Amino acid sequence: MLRKVTIFLLFILVSGMVFSNYLGAEAAGIKGGKLTLILTTAPQTFNWFNAGIGDSSIIGHLLGRGGRLAEYNEIEKKYYPGIAESWKGPRVTKDGGMEIIFYLRKGVRWSDGKPFTADDVVFTFNNVILNPKFPNRIQDQLKTSKGLLPEVKKIDDYAVRIFYKEVYRPAFDAVARVYILPKHIWEPQMKTKKISEIWDISAISKGELVGLGPFIPVEYVPEQYIRLMRNPYYWKVDKNGVQLPYLDEIVYKIVPNYEAGKLIFLTGGADVFAPRAGDIVAIKEKEDFVVFRQGPTQSIQYLAFNFNVKDLVKRGWFRNIHFRKAIAYTINKQAIINVVYQGFGVEQNSVVAFMSPFFNENVVEKYNYSIDRAKSELKLGGFRFGKDGILYDSKGNKVEFTLITDSSDTFREQV
């Protein structure tokens, strides 16, 4: 099988009635095959409420991604219908509230063959996400500025109404991206387990993992691999009427670290690998791999000062805005991109990634590399350089502190 290298570099308001194709409807591929990938850490859970980010969430994503009400195309910056074939809203109601009505696809089945209906959507929101006994990050995303949560009600078996008592602009984005859960699997387990305990690692051997996504985890050998098989009831088909996904299975080999994963790929043990930027040229020289450059991601490398450090002297430095600005001016971002990342990177001057729809160039203050500007900021902050060339604060304390980073990440160490 052809091996590939993938390169990762470091309010949306939808209104009206929407009818459109889904993502993947225009695909045309060949059915069958197996894909072998790399995981650098073993999954700790299949419950995406607990998974956070990282390798546990990767598996949960494959299990649940086909179960979103709407799907967002990152390239086109627009939503396509998901398990909701259409929707009305968001629209303001006469009482000053806001509603979205989702019309669900008929004939969709869970991976165990059970029918998907509005009951699953209402259960996911009201019994799990909006459950007051189960605080979770999605619940926080659904809250308005006044702390109000939506009301989710079933209109009929294939229609659901989301209602807010006040206008909440991010509502569609937050609601549409939720992975819908199978009520027939989760409801019985909630009688004996906490929500956070459902779909733990043991769920795979018990056959409890049921989803609307393209692949279902079926086998897990700790510290070795996890195998996923295509969902026989996946609801998407391509333009020729062929059921998706094309692949029969995906196998994730579990490795202890990045270097182990790279070795497995280079020796033919994996089909796809996401190299660090500094490795791209060297890997390309070993063999004529197919390389896909996906462009910048929203991952940002940054330096953060501890505002609550126990040392009160250091705390004063770190909370001094002129001190922090001075440090910003001493960071040569372009040199880091050129030397550490071999040119595969972009300057980032905001906590909001520049490719985000929320990024506004006009409100970003840039700190281009400048030692002179750094010295000016230090002076404004009450700092001075002694005859020995060492920096002192206004009380005569020598300025020195420790930078801490992940020792297993050679690129951060180089930075």
From TrEMBL:
SUPFAM superfamilies for this protein: Periplasmic binding protein-like II
A GO biological-process term: peptide transport
Alphabetical UniProt keywords: Signal, Transport
Pfam family, any one: SBP_bac_5
GO MF annotations in UniProt: peptide transmembrane transporter activity
Record domain Solute-binding protein family: where: 78-413
Listed InterPro entries: SBP_5 (IPR039424), SBP_5_dom (IPR000914)
Organism superkingdom: Bacteria
Family annotation (PANTHER family): OLIGOPEPTIDE-BINDING PROTEIN APPA, PERIPLASMIC BINDING COMPONENT OF ABC TRANSPORTER
Family label: Belongs to the bacterial solute-binding protein 5 family.
Name under which the protein is recorded: ABC transporter substrate-binding protein
Organism of derivation: Fervidobacterium nodosum
